[in-house]
């Protein structure tokens, strides 16, 4: 985040407030998977939104966890459409998916 | 042309498969492998049938024995998805004897059967688009049967990726080229 000019004080951990950066979006989704797409307008106001990829691995046996993975994926798809840039981080290496 | 689309849950791979198929020759078949066991599955199946009706795809539900499908005309076929097909085959109650075989024999048999089935489908199609998933990417501990499932799907993904012209991985609805070339699609 420092590369983009943001510091710890700018970063909100799974809380929607006035700070420009939000991380751990997947934890907010988990609170209400049915209505997660309603978060898009508020998230669009952020400079940076960071979300873990939670959709890989064995599909969970319980429905709430499955719904959480799906909701997080769908929200990320919707946000990516609205975003100027989408960057995937793996091993500290950025891959630009959209710019 | 053959396409393998991979990525986690709800990453946009199925939607992309449908968009891609719409640019390829008809008739277009959508083979859906999810055997519905709960409300979420039934809802997904309803959505899939509606997609087929809206887009003029022929909907086929096939839970096991994909090699037995007979397509009436050569065209474009989507198989969505390998993770359900593998689970249905591996845990098929009609093949309880399979569970008595060694793990490696079981994995080889199931993966071999599905690969043969897909080859049969390829022979009947101009284009094939396979949707799969990355079930090996988590850190949880599983019992042997789930580990077999991960191995089956890993084997299928590896063999198909080596054989197919195009392999794309999806994240946030956006394709990344692992192999081949991204076709131009209208957004």
Description:
The complex is a heterodimer of chains A (99) and B (187). Chain A is an alpha/beta fold. Chain A has one domain: Rossmann fold (3-Layer(aba) Sandwich). In chain A, 32% of the residues lie in helices and 19% in strands. In chain A, strands 1-2-3 form a three-stranded parallel sheet, with no helix packed on it. A two-stranded antiparallel sheet of chain A has the order 4-5. In chain A, helix 1 (25-31) crosses helix 3. The longest helix of chain A has 20 residues, at 63-82. Chain B is 41% helix and 19% strand. Chain B is built from five helices and seven strands. Chain B has helices spanning 13-22, 39-55, 82-90, 103-123, 144-163; strands spanning 2-6, 28-32, 58-61, 76-80, 127-131, 166-171, 174-179. Chain B has a seven-stranded mixed sheet with strand order 3-2-4-5-1-6-7, sandwiched between helices. In chain B, helix 3 packs across helix 5. Chain B is globular. Chains A and B meet through helix 3 and strand 5 of A and helix 5 of B.
Labels describing this entry:
heterodimer, A: 99 residues, alpha/beta, Rossmann fold, two-stranded antiparallel ribbon, 3 helices, 32% helix, 19% strand, B: 187 residues, 5 helices
Layout of helices and strands:
The complex is a heterodimer of chains A (99) and B (187).
Chain A (H helix, E strand, L loop, with lengths): L10 E3 L7 E3 L1 H7 L8 H5 L3 E2 L13 H20 L3 E5 L2 E6 L1
Parallel strand pairs in A: 1-2, 2-3
Antiparallel strand pairs in A: 4-5
Chain B lengths: L1 E5 L6 H10 L5 E5 L6 H17 L2 E4 L14 E5 L1 H9 L12 H21 L3 E5 L12 H20 L2 E6 L2 E6 L8
Helix pairs in contact in B: 3-4, 3-5, 4-5
Give the topology string of chain A: H per helix, E per strand.
EEHHEHEE
What's the β-strand tally of chain A? 5
Residue windows where pLDDT falls under 50 for at least 5 positions of chain A: none
Order of helices and strands of chain B: EHEHEEHHEHEE
Q: What strand order characterises the main sheet of chain A? A: 1-2-3
CATH architecture of chain A: 3-Layer(aba) Sandwich
In the residues of chain A, how many domains can be counted?
Answer: 1
- The assembly state of the depicted protein chains is heterodimer
- The number of strands of chain B is 7
* CATH topology assignment of chain B: Rossmann fold
- Model regions low in confidence, pLDDT < 50 over at least 5 residues of chain B: none
Strand content of chain A: 15-25%
Mean pLDDT of chain A: 94
CATH-scheme architecture of chain B = 3-Layer(aba) Sandwich
CATH superfamily of chain B, please? P-loop containing nucleotide triphosphate hydrolases
What's the rounded overall pLDDT mean of chain B? 93
CATH class of chain A: Alpha Beta
Helix content of chain A: 25-40%
